[in-house]
Structures are given as structure tokens and as C-alpha cells.
Amino acid sequence: MKRAVCLISGGMDSLVSATIAKREGYEIYCLTVDYKQKAKKEIESAKKVAKFLKAKEHLILNIDLSWTKSALTRREIKIPKKAKGIPPTYVPARNTILLSLAVAYAETIDAENIFIGINSIDYSGYPDCRDVFVKKFQELVDVSTKKTVEGKKIKIEAPLLYLSKAEIVKKGVELGVDFSITWSCYRNTKKPCGKCDSCRLREIAFKKAKIPDPLIE
Amino acid sequence: MKRAVCLISGGMDSLVSATIAKREGYEIYCLTVDYKQKAKKEIESAKKVAKFLKAKEHLILNIDLSWTKSALTRREIKIPKKAKGIPPTYVPARNTILLSLAVAYAETIDAENIFIGINSIDYSGYPDCRDVFVKKFQELVDVSTKKTVEGKKIKIEAPLLYLSKAEIVKKGVELGVDFSITWSCYRNTKKPCGKCDSCRLREIAFKKAKIPDPLIE
Known about the structure:
Two copies of one chain form a homodimer.
Chain A: E1 3-7, H1 12-23, E2 27-34, H2 41-52, E3 57-62, H3 94-109, E4 113-115, H4 131-144, H5 146-149, E5 155-157, H6 165-174, H7 197-209
Parallel strand pairs in A: 1-2, 1-4, 2-3, 4-5
Helix pairs in contact in A: 1-6, 6-7
């Protein structure tokens, strides 16, 4: 059975992305990084997602990134209600760090595919969510691992890259995904704050898809 | 004062590489990753190196990579005396992980340069020590961070890339480097084992440079 490493954040995109892998017949190996983000609930959601996917394994790595300059990691940097350009919630090199760990995992378990839920359409302005990032990371992987240099492949799969957030919701529903187990809010409040960029993007997505958000209802 | 992030492993190459940065007038920010390698002594050496460099800061990150398939991390995989091709001491995606963390650090402290002591001449056969790796990582950085996308630079500096190991020794002596504080052996023995690939490469380097190794004498 072919194996896939699926990066799982606890949010809706990585759940849909990994569900696509599951439906394509991969054995699922989930990877989550607890980087001391403010929204600790993400980790609990990631565990539920791994369970939902019937993952063969769920590797949760503790990597303290609280020293990085980001509104998601530092108490003194506030999570803004609305931000222009690259917002303060950007975490330096986060997707590069996550994918490099996923590559190490893929090499270790001999997986040929890595699924990541990044999306370049309705995204938060993070440079490491764009298609050029995926392209350049793939080129890097092709020359830098034992596996790839010896002729095998490690392919970065970003099946949501060109979907709108509403299309992601629809895709998820179509695949029977349970969005109630996910957490998108940047805050660690009891209920999603509804004000941060991530909450707003999610709200618009469900509205456009004409589907109620089970986390809100 | 311009800042440089210097990846410090505790070995001789990263010490020489960082000393070059120091002599070029950078304020030094050291980054070391304790990834649960067998040779724990590396971390103690890295601390001595940071002190030798009078580093402004030494960030030591604990990232458990004991799950990766490598002779440097797993007890059941033996460190070979001599290996052909890409040896079992290769740690999956190690330099990609290290550099991605260095990029996050550089963005956080607003450093424009990252120094890494990799060397493509007398190296251990690791694919992520070659010049094509540095080239591709640079291309990735150029498109993936807030800093680079907003027009600033993060440049990967690998000043030892095209030097032989003997030339690195000579360069170090020329710069007044104290090699006695470094640790190259893959094992955590009291004295270097003298048998592993890393010990052998070091031995040959000092012999060719006609300089005694202070760690051996």
C-alpha cells in the first residue's frame, strides 16, 4: 500500500487535503507540529483529524518556535482584526520548516508523497502559501535527499492550491469530511472569536458554499 | 552592525565558517539544534564555539529527530567504519531542517546572512552538502519569506563549499581558531573513536595540512 505523509494543522484545509490522499488509496501518516502557537486547540483538533482519517501513525513534534516574530507565537504581538499585505500572523519560514520535517518523515517511512493543505487563492497573504513556493520546494527536495538522489521520488502534493476557500468547503462535504472537529481561529478561546483573519476567511467560505459551519451552529 | 545567523554543530567546519563571518564584521547569532544525536558532546562543543565567537546570542533548539532513519539517531543502526555511496549516517533532510530554522531566526532578528559550514569536496556523501543544494535552498528562500518578498535579502553563505578539508584546517589556523573545543566523532566516547567516517576525514585533513589535531595530542 502506498504511503502518504499528511501535514495536519487541525484546520479545515489540511483535513480536506489529507482526505483526498485517503480517497486516493494512500496509507496515511499524519505529521503535526506543536510549535507553541497561541491556539493550542489546533493540536487537539489535529488528533481528532488523524483519528477521522484512520491514520496509520500520528507523529506530533514539539518544536518551540515561541522565539519567532509572529502574532501567533508572541504574547506582545496582537492578532489583528484585519490586516493588509503580509500580516503579523505570518510565522517566519513555517511552511519550509513543516515541509522539511515532512520530507524527513517521508524518507524514514519510505513514502513517495507529502500532502499539504496550502491554498494560494483565499489565503492570508503568506508568501509560503503560493504556488511558486511549492515549485521551489519540490526542486529543492529533488536534489537534497538520499531517496531522490537515488532515483526515487518525494512529491509535494498541494491539491487545494488553486481552489477557493468555498470550493474547499464543498470538496470537503463531497468527501464526507466532518468540519466540526477542526479549529481555524488564531485564538484559543472557547468558541472561535469570529474576528481574526482565519475566522473571517472561514466564515466567508461557508457562506459562499451555502453550507452551515458545524463549529458555529 | 550587520547580523549573521551561524549554524553551529560543534564540529570544525561550522566553527571555521562562523569565524569567517566574525572576521567579516558580523554580529554573530549562533543556532544549534539538539536533535537527540548519539554524539551529545556536539552540544557542549557548540556552546564552547559560541563563547569563542563571543556570540550575541546562542539559540539551542531541542528537536527530537530520534524517529528518523539514521545511524546518528537510532541505536539499532550501527555507525559504520567505512561506507560507500550515501552512508547510513545520513540524517534525512537534516540540512533542510537546519537551514529552514536558520531562516526563521534570520527573519526574526533581521539578519541578512546565514552561515553554514557545509563542504562539497571532502564530504561524507550527503546529498544536502552539495552546491546544488545551497543553490536550490537560496532560490526557495528568495520566494518564501516576508523579508525576501518585501525586497530584502536572506543570503545563504557557505564559505567552505569548495575547500578541501585540509584547506579548512589551514584556514582555521590562519584565523586563530581553537580546534580543541570542537567535536567531530559520530560517537559519544570519551575520546574520538578514530574509526568513524567523520574521525577519518578529520584525521586526513590535519595530516594533509601538516598540523597536529589538538583534540588528539
